[in-house]
Structures are given as C-alpha cells and as structure tokens.
TrEMBL record:
Protein's name according to its UniProt entry: AMP-binding protein
PANTHER family the record matches: BLR5969 PROTEIN
Stretches assigned to the AMP-dependent synthetase/ligase domain: 131-289
InterPro entries: AMP-bd_C_sf, AMP-dep_synth/lig_dom, ANL_N_sf
Amino acid sequence: MNPYYQDREAISPEERERELFSRLPALLARARARAPAIAQQLQGVDPEAIRSRPQLERIPVIRKSELLQAQLAMRRQGGPEGQPSSSRVFGGFSTIGWGEALRVFASPGPIYEPESARADYWGFARSLYAAGFRPGDLVYNCFSYHFTPAGSMMETAAHALGCTVFPGGVGQTEQQVQAIADLAPSGYTGTPSFLKIILEKADEQGIGLPSLKRALFSGEAFPPSLRDWFAGRGIDGFQAYGSADLGMIAFETQAREGLVVNEDIILEIVRPGTSQPVPAGEVGEVVVTTLNPDYPLVRFGTGDLSALLAGQSPCGRSNLRIKGWMGRADQTTKVRGMFVHPGQVAGVLKRHPEVGRARLVVSGTPGSDVMILKVELPEPRREVLDQLAASVRELTKLRADIEPVAPGSLPNDGKIIDDIRSYE
C-alpha cells in the first residue's frame, strides 16, 4: 500500500519549489482581479515576477488582526439595498461569493470564512492518511459542526479519503460513549481532551470502546505524555496543525519528528511583527501563502510561533518540517480549543470598573487546562466574584476561577494573559 496520500509528498524539495512557484503567479493575478483586499496588498507588485522565496518577500505580511479589521470596516459600510455582499462579509479577501461558497463559517472575532465545493477544501485528507485512516473506515468526528469550520474540515477530508463519518460534535458525553459502543468506529477526530473525557466516562460506566485504534487531533497541544496515555488505551494518536483561515498547515507522521508542511501552501517563518524571514532553526511567526484559488491568502501571518527543522523526515516525505506549535507571537492563547484574546479580558474589566488591574493565568497540562483571572479588588465580595466569573464565561465561552488580590499587587508590565502551561 502506498505510504503517502499522494506521490508528490516524496518529490525532491527543488521540484516542489518549482511547482509551487510556477502556480503562484496565476493565482496572484486571479486574486488581484477578484479580491480587492489582495489587490491592495499587491500594489506595486507584478504577479508574474513572484517566482521564488526572495521575490515573495516583496509582498508585505498581512496578519489576522488586519483581516479582522478589514472585515469589520467593510461590514460597517453596508451592502447594496440592505443585502450583504460576499465581498463585504469576507473583507475583500475571497474570490468567490454566494452560490459558489457552499458554507460560511465564523471563528472568534468574528472572522468569516468561505468553504467552496472543491473536494477536501481544507486539505486535511493528507493528515488523516498519515494518521492511518483508510477508505472504508468509519470516522467518529467530535469537532463542532456549527459556527466554526472544524467539523467540516475533518468531514470533507474523510469523505475525500473514502470514509464514512458520524457527526458526533461536542458535549453529551454519555451519548458519545453509547454511540461509539454501538457503531464501533475505528478512528476519532477532535480534540485530545474530549476523547480523554469520553474514555474516562466509559470507564465509569464499565463500557469498553475497543474499536478505536487511531485518532487525528487538532485544536489543542498534544504532548508526548498525552500521546502515551492514549497509546496505553490502544489508540495511535497524531496531531494536525491548521487554522480556519488557511486550512491544514502541517501534520504529524509515523516518524514523530516535527510536523510536515502541507503540499499546497508556501510556509515561511518570519520575525514577529515584520515581513522578514528568520534564519533556519530560529523561532519566529508562521506565515503562509495558500494556493487556494477561492480564499487566496498571501503571506498571511498566523500569530503562531514555530521553527523550521533541518533535514528531511525519516518517513520519506520531503517537504519542510516545523517543530510544532510553540506559542503565540502576541498574548493570545488557546484554551480547550478556543482562542482567548487580551481584548476579551479588557471587555471583562470594562463591565466591572471596580476592578483595578487583572491578569488571566492559564495553567495545568494540555487536556486539563485551568484558567484563573486574578483581579485587584478592594472589597472582594462573593457576588462580585460571581459576576466576574459570569462575564468571563460570556465573553470567552470558557470557565475561569476568579482570584482576588490586593490592589497594586499585580506587576505593572503590560501582560494581560500569562500562559504557564508545560508542553513537555
């Protein structure tokens, strides 16, 4: 059986670079003609001249915060005759509109993303294959099917691979246990923390779930300690790294040495806050140019930190490898699959003027994250603490413990979110 989803995963790095950069000029030209925000980003740049990485550096990096601001600005302008236009909703970054887009999703911000009818639109089939999924498998998909695209990411990938999908979604742990026991799926897709919860609930109920043999995780860190925990249950777990804007960026293979970059993107590591690539091996921000003709993000700064690994993967795949997710270039962090932004903490403080400074401390281990909001309060009454907890829940969709501290005791260092989790 072919060890690769596609043979091109093992072509020479030189051949891959030629192929990617031979496709890029036409994509840039189409994007400039149909996506006004991309046209603005490409001002003064001849798409035909962008045929190598040094030439790509002529294009400025655009970051997620700028994409959000572009969408917000265009939404405020209003649509024709009160009808929202796709260009306005997507901030001028998409080349397709209503009818061509099968679905529209929303990620925190909110940032809206299109999904077209192209098979494996998000590009995750390759990572499923590397994780051991094969045609004819039943995939138990526990990513959310509403608002965010995670559920569709895995479902469309599984369908492209020739698998059947059960849309488990999130929550309802006891029903999840029963469905897995009844259906006997061979594979799971979702966050590692949720599968751990399901398996522990099954243990409580005395129900065995022996059919699960493999899993593709995303949305959370997946450290070796958690990988070993699943291996002890007979489940071979792998991770994939992606985003709602770009789809799948990189994926883990049997080699377990970093993450191999997806085939239809150009990945760079740049110095945070700049457009300049860093030397190989140095930690910097992940920047991606995707060859997606429907949503052609160009030099898109993810805000995630990583580093390129030297050499080629022992699995035989020849594309670039990254070390994995190494934190955020800003203070944004991910807790139980959800991004938490400094602005959300600021929103809590705006609702509660009696609070001085505040700091959100994220601790614990991946799969068992703990959020504590430390707040400077002169009079930490129980009703105030309860109201603060409710505000955090409403604004972040996550629970946090509230810890009152003395006024003036938090460091005046500008830090709003402090992620002290260990990823060893």
